[in-house]
Amino acid sequence: MPDNELHEILGDLVVASHRLARLAARVTGNTESPATWRTLSVLQTSGAMRLGELAANSRVSQPTMTKIVRNLVEAEWVKRIADTDDARAWQIAITPKGAAALKAWRDQLSAALVPLFADLGDDEVEALRSAVRIIGSRVDLSAAATEALAGAR
């Protein structure tokens, strides 16, 4: 496949996935900020991290992340833990309550989308399953490469 065709397909995939996520979020009626769910997801996937690193990973400013974390601490969805590398600093970690809230949110999103995809045939469902597997493996590989590069500095 020519690079320009793959380039276009990947661009379309990103746009379609964003549209799908926004549609599902609207259908659920959930009023939590997308940044809240993104922050919990980053913490669940990557583990505890400092506020600045969390802000960068969640693609928000540090002052915005400070507010998000304050709200998440109040909800008991995250906790501050001492940074073992710097006694003056804190790391932010997801709590079991936060992980449960994230799982419930993801379940709501999935349930909201089932009617939209209920008429798919077995081959189409298998194509979606395969796409998820391929994308997941590339994202995991990319995350591992990024961590390795950061550690080499």
Automatic annotation (TrEMBL):
| Span of domain HTH marR-type | 3-137
* Molecular function as annotated in GO: DNA-binding transcription factor activity
Among Pfam families, the record links this protein to: MarR (PF01047)
Which protein are we looking at? Answer: MarR family transcriptional regulator
User: Where does this protein come from, organism-wise?
Assistant: Leifsonia poae
Q: What is the lineage of its organism?
A: Bacteria, Bacillati, Actinomycetota, Actinomycetes, Micrococcales
